[in-house]
Amino acid sequence: MNKLSNLLMANVPKYEITIPSSETSTTFRPFLVKEEKVLLLAQESNSDSDILIAIKNIIESCVDGIEDAGSLPLFDIEYLFLQIRSKSVGESVNPTIICPTTGESISVKVLIPDIEITKNKSHKNKISINDNIILKMKYPTLNDLSKREGVLDYTNSESFYYLIADCIVSIETKSDLIDATSLPKEEVLDFVDSMTKSQFENVLDFFLTSPKIEHTVSYTTSDGTERKVVLSGLSDFFG
Predict the structure, then answer these.
(1) Are 80 and 59 within 8 A, CB to CB?
(2) pTM
(3) In angstroms, what is the C-alpha Rg of the chain?
(4) Rounded to 5 degrees, what are φ and ψ at 28?
(5) How far apart are alpha carbons 217 and 228 in whole angstroms?
(6) 3-class DSSP state for residue 16?
(7) Residue 205: which H helix or E strand, with range?
(8) Three-state SS for 122?
(9) CA angle at 197 for the pair 194 and 201, rounded to the nearest 5°
(10) pLDDT of 4-22, one tens digit each?
(11) Span 205-229, mean pLDDT?
(12) CA-to-CA distance for 152 and 54, rounded, in angstroms?
């Protein structure tokens, strides 16, 4: 970096932030013009993988202490990116929603500081699937999303078959603690295959109740009716 760039970097502001999953405090800066250009190019390409790479690079560049954003849970990624974006571009976003009742397109305004991470009180990362087996789970990460071309379909349990295997950390019985991450992937997949339907759905519930960024917005349709919709995930806020 040349001397002129150093002059600018010395005055870039820093902001405090708490990483949701670990509840550790750190600092971050706004993204720079060169980083915004990469993000805009990724968005123009309409490539989910390019956008994910751009977001990963921005978080690693802007947030102190994060060297591999790909290993962070998705709700961390979404929250961190929103906070960086709020200090870089502005504190409001104007997504366009499709009213589920009337089908019309409506632009709404959302203030980023109002967006929160919602946590289900019943959520837990240790799941008892029978009287003898407890699974310890990890949250899906940006790397997991990249392997699935940027899409996790929470309404399709079949799509979670491989994701569940990727997210099992350990399998605990009354006599043993098995490190699932050290096992061949085929063995873990066979374990998932051997679950009953109710056991599979019990594990699936871990993903459905995981922390997520959400915000309820009110809007008025052309018939004069005031309605509400819940936005969740980056795609909703930048749609």
Answers:
(1) yes
(2) 0.85
(3) 20
(4) -145, 160
(5) 6
(6) strand
(7) helix 197-208
(8) coil
(9) 110
(10) 667 666 778 999 999 999 9
(11) 92
(12) 19
